Amino acid sequence: MLLAVAPAASPSPAARSLLMSYPSGDAPHAHGPGHGAISTTLCVNGVEHELLLDPRATLLDTLRETLHLTGTKKGCDHGQCGACTVHLDGRRVNACLVLAAAAGGRAVTTIEGLGDARTPHPLQAAFVAHDGYQCGYCTAGQIMSAAALLNEPCGDSDDEVRELMSGNLCRCGAYANIIDAVQDVRGNR
Ligand code: FES
Ligand code: FES
């Protein structure tokens, strides 16, 4: 069990709008949970964490800065790049757009929970085999997105995979190899 305080770093647009909905006298302090902090249990990769959360803290910041699960990356912090993709109850979400408090009681899975060097998820192995990355910054998000895609309705063609992976940007342009890796795991290579 871990009792920790989630910081209020870089609130997303959604978090900012929530803050704006506070009566001014009730708004939590800008640099800490303040008296508006709420107690939440986050279940991440099968481990429960009891946290005292600033209501403005995003799931992304809480994972990285409070739980030190830095495999999930922050790119745009605005829901546009997919670097922060994690699973919430098995479905992919942008962690920068989810308030941590809203993830309480739900199953959060990050890249650390998908596999490791000894027992990699088939997609992790396929990304290595197909050279599906260059700098690697987008890779965790790509793999988490692809892992969810395996359970979504998706046709066999590369174009359909491209469409369903279109929320995950790669500034290195490793797209061709990423598609190869995903299609390999789907049995289409
Ligand atoms: S960091 Fe979340 S979508 Fe870019
Ligand atoms: S591998 Fe560098 S951004 Fe995708």
TrEMBL record:
Keywords for the protein's UniProt record, in alphabetical order: 2Fe-2S, Iron, Iron-sulfur, Metal-binding, Oxidoreductase
Matching InterPro entries: 2Fe-2S-bd, 2Fe-2S-bd_dom_sf, 2Fe-2S_ferredoxin-like_sf, 2Fe-2S_ferredoxin-type, 2Fe2S_fd_BS, Aldehyde_Oxdr_Iron-Sulfur, Beta-grasp_dom_sf
Signal peptide residues on this chain, from the entry's feature table: none
Keyword Ligase listed: no
Domain of life of the source: Bacteria
Record flagged with keyword Iron: yes
SUPFAM superfamilies: 2Fe-2S ferredoxin-like, CO dehydrogenase ISP C-domain like
Cofactor(s) needed for function: [2Fe-2S] cluster
A molecular function (GO) term: 2 iron, 2 sulfur cluster binding
Pfam family, one: Fer2
Family matches, as PROSITE patterns: 2FE2S_FER_1 (PS00197), 2FE2S_FER_2 (PS51085)
2Fe-2S ferredoxin-type domain: residues covered: 38-114
Family matches, as PANTHER family: OXIDOREDUCTASE WITH IRON-SULFUR SUBUNIT (PTHR45331:SF2), OXIDOREDUCTASE, IRON-SULPHUR BINDING SUBUNIT-RELATED-RELATED (PTHR45331)
Name of the protein: (2Fe-2S)-binding protein
